[in-house]
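User: Show me a protein chain along with its predicted structure.
Assistant: Here is one chain, sequence first, then structure tokens.
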Amino acid sequence: YTTLFRSLYYLKRPLHLIKTGLLEGAVTEAKLKYPARRLRIYAITGTDGKTTSSTLFYHVLKAAGHKVALITTVAAYIGDTEIDTGFHVTTPSPKLLHQ
């Protein structure tokens, strides 16, 4: 069974790149000349408190004079501009994210 499951995993592996948006993200990133290279990105992970922690972090960095952006389940901001993300959407499409 192990060989069968391993074979199935390797057969479906390329589809995973399409399903997760990694392929679209890579193409968009290349077209836009790798915009993330000019950014410092922080991510907060865990079970509880991510929105609160990231919002506090956003405000601390902003108060310190840094250019900041924030994406949470509540809202998304670039500087002081709120961006409509829809209801409980935490990850924009790769194209929108890189733009």
